[in-house]
Design goal:
The chain has 363 residues and is an alpha+beta fold. The chain folds into three domains: 47 residues, no CATH class; 106 residues, FAD/NAD(P)-binding domain (3-Layer(bba) Sandwich); 105 residues, Enolase-like, domain 1, CATH 3.30.390. 24% of the residues lie in helices and 26% in strands. Strands 15-16-19-18-17 form a five-stranded antiparallel beta sheet. Strands 8-7-6-12 form a four-stranded parallel beta sheet. Strands 1-2-3 form a three-stranded antiparallel beta sheet.
Amino acid sequence: IKTIEPHDSVERYTELGVDVVKGYATIIDPWTVEIARNDGGTQRLTTRSIIIASGADPVVPPIPGIKDSGYLTSETLWDAFAKMDKAPARVVILGGGPIGCELSQALARLGSNVTQVEMMPELLGREDADVSSLARRVLEESGVTVLTDHKAVRVEDGALIAEHGGQEVRIAYDALIVAIGRKARLTGFGLEDIGVDTNRTVTTDEFLATRFPNIFAAGDVAGPYQFTHTASHQAWYASVNALFGTFKKFKADYRVIPAVTFLDPEIARVGINEREAAEQGIAVDVTRYDLDDLDRAIAESETRGFVKVLTAPGKDQVLGATIVGAHAGELLAEYVLAMKHGIGLNKILGTIHSYPTMAEANK
């Protein structure tokens, strides 16, 4: 962490020529930003363009008792745990999405007795059933108690109370972590005062501009995807359009967005999966290869998982790919490239992959 941390440091950006001002900013008008500086001063900047990149906050459910429960989130747990001599004995994690699953497995492996509570019938509800069930198995094997179909109703006396099958279940904890999602940061810095349109995120056009053509947004605050790599992608478009939009504008391209859940094994996906194809009425052919037949996976004792590719019926056009396994996030890049540039599955199958590698699974 100490090695990676400087990548987003004030020092790095200063060395790159960025004037970094630490403080709280408020947009006064479309051309003016006022900064309440951390050193106690106030500074006003005038500008030709503004880019809103305020990110997102964890969502906290409005259930009785949670406000005073001392709950943690994916943003606050790091400082809280850094003050502890060891991981808390009993951890309750509220939420069965990617963040909740990643934290559950990590803390269980650090020695905590982890209970994960999810109100829906499955973990990772956007994934296919075989992916969700595998995620549950690996979490339980890591020592996590997974409670699906459990709806949190209140917090009291150091315990989360959940409802399941008409009965209340009491789950005691030493640390409660809320991980049910994130919401865009939209208030507190002037958007509402100058009339920037918002609807769960900042409303932007295809060039990432707001109703004010010189105010742009990028990242979680712009949506629709809450991924670091998507934020970086949007940042390029917002920056270039803000600087050179008078001469030429570029439309943000969301056609192919990969996503990875960093469990062990990793779960990586791009495009549609079987669940989404069925919901949208899209006919697909499904090709699946299990890693227990791959020589490198066998040699590395990493045989759990599979590669699943969806193609248009009777064609080799890749509509989506899901990979579960060691280094799935790296393996997915081949299908991201294929979908981005219209490379069919047959061309992937006809491409020589080094032996013995995990990448052979893709063909």
